[in-house]
Amino acid sequence: MNRNTNWLILIIFLFLISLWIDLSKNISFPNPFNNTTLFSRNVDVRLGLDLRGGLQTLLEADVPAGQNVSSGDLAITRQILENRANALGVSEVVMQTAGDRRIVAEFPGVSNPEEVVASLQQTALLEFVDFGTSPVAVGTKIETDHGSTSVEPGASTSTPPATPTTDPNQPAPTADPNQTPATIYKTVMTGADLKEAHVQADAAGQPGVGFTLSDNGAKIFADYTTTHTKQYLGIVLDKTVISAPIVNSPITDGSGIIQGKFSADEANKLAIQLSYGALPVPVKVVESRTVGATLGEESVRKSLLAGMIGLGVVILFMVLYYRLPGFIADLALIVYALLSLGLFKLIPVVLTLPGIAGFILSIGMAVDANILIFERLKEELRAGRNLRQAIDLGWSRAWPSIRDSNTSSLITCLILYVFGNTFGASMVKGFSVTLALGILMSLFTAIIVTRTFLHTLLDNLKLSDHPRWFGL
User: Fold this and answer.
1) Which residues lie closer than 8 Å to 421 by C-beta, 6 or more apart?
2) First to last CA, the chain
3) Model pTM?
4) pLDDT at res. 18
5) How far apart are CA 430 and CA 354, in angstroms?
6) Cα 201 from Cα 208, distance rounded (Å)
7) Given 226, 344, 347, 371, which residue has the most CB atoms within 10 angstroms?
């Protein structure tokens, strides 16, 4: 009895939380000790490209035709690109590898396709370069020894030396970016030792990019700044100087700020590029097109209507055929639908039309377990068991069939997911995800919710007084 009560309390709690999420577009938890917010999350329904429209891009490895691209490098490239896109504020992005050289990218609801595509292709090679006692102007293209065996550190002969300054926040003057460099500069450290980058205001209140180094990077940076005080340390992005401050004192805490007269947007873009690193495989855009919603609100409305009709038919069948246990199963089915929708919104799952179909299909599959349990329940009641024994025996004897059928369905979902992920078939992938989540949730409702409701409502009933309630 105590265990059943505990499960009932948990079910009610999950039901209320799911109902709150289902009816909300944003959820937040206030801090009881002050006016801040502990947690805030957008839980609006996420619609896919076919229902919302957006940008569809096909990217290909920008390497010679005969050069092999490893699946691992392509997968890392896809992950970096996805992180960059999400950091730009492009939500619900879908990126999948297609074959061994291509990546299919979908950006539902994107408003600036050019910015997204440009950010995806940038390599963002960051270098901290030794400029010695002579500065190099911001915007100058330089050569470094990164990836080269020759090192010739020193002042650039293509840019007139500027008067040294002791202000580390003052960048060097702007120069013609088309000047030809005459010196190969020594790279002290690359962005590979960068742990984290973020937008941060400098001492003058201007946007900059604060950074934190890894343990190895912090040691290299500390050693260099200790032995090169009053010298210029260039910060170079893709071989272009973006800042050239003077090292006034050793920097041993493994953190700093990149300054370069950035606007807020430029600082944000640079932080994104540095945070997610250079691409293991350079990519080029093979095809990019803006698409409208191919299905739109009308199809969503019809799909939801079909789901409601299907749910209504299932509820009616269960009540007419299984009577009181069927009514209890209907209550569990409503809990299942609310929990599943709340889970989809919280993860979040991007709903395409096939994804909605997978969810509707999972509703029918959720009833399968209840039917197996109730058929075994009726057999035990006919054999003379009391209600409590019949519920426990009916569940335990139906469980092997429930377990095996749902396991086979989950294996099928896994195969569909791998297929969709490998060949860039996002619709197949969306269908498999929603169906798999629905199956897992249906197992929870069959194992926990239905059984708890049965014990709560039926344990105190006398079967002999109400045999028609059970279809006997």
Assistant:
1) 96, 97, 429
2) 27
3) 0.60
4) 92
5) 7
6) 5
7) 344
